[in-house]
Model the fold of this input.
Amino acid sequence: MKFLRYGPKGYEKPGLLDANGAIRDLSEVITDFTPQFLSAQSIDRLRKLNVESLPVVEGSPRIGTPVTGTSKFLCVGLNYADHARETGKEPPAEPVLFGKATSAICGPNDDVEIPRGSDRTDWEVELGIVIGTRAKYVSEEEALNHVAGYVLVNDVSERRFQSERGGQWIKGKSHDTFGPVGPWLVTPDEFEDIQNIDLWLDVDGERRQTGNTRTMIFNVAHLISYISQFMTLEPGDIISTGTPPGVGLGMKPPVFLKEGQVVRLGASGLGEQRQKMVRA
Done:
């Protein structure tokens, strides 16, 4: 199933995408896609609904992030060997983890702000994992049982803030709107193999990134298990799993985003995003 949230920012309603691509309203069934509604049992109850009986949402409403109440937004760096090399780094021996402020989360088609003083705002198309049930010290064999679904993420980054302003990467990863998520939360049963998902990203209609999750250094199950050794993953937590090559930093010479440019990105089975760059 494909779940989503639609409506003005801060006033989103829960919905699902039906087989014809229409949005069906779920607000009479659940209050919202909060962490409490992400368990397998809750999703199974939604599967039993007569989708055709749900109200159709007319028009083209704004699409928000598909989950709310996220407590942790975690990211994995350098998880594609060719991306690591394009940034001048060797592929890591263990997953590189960093945090992204939850205040960076925004809808998939919302404008993205170029921060004040920024001249190196960059793009990164990624597969995101949404945790459905609490995960602490889980094995790789158990890991996927803790997944509520998968999402498309643009891990927007300010490279100077990230690497030249001292401290940790979080400075360059957490500006408002630096975490477009969605359009949908797609349940795991929709995918034959999550390690065979095509990813792409365009800037002003020019292809910048093309990749596939099969070339990840550390796969989805390993990442969940690994992270759960260091911290408890709670329902609603998002893990963004790394980006394939083609980021602006890796171009020769490097190329970064400017006001007015449009970024489009997508992944097989996960939908598409579109963002216009604006000044903060």
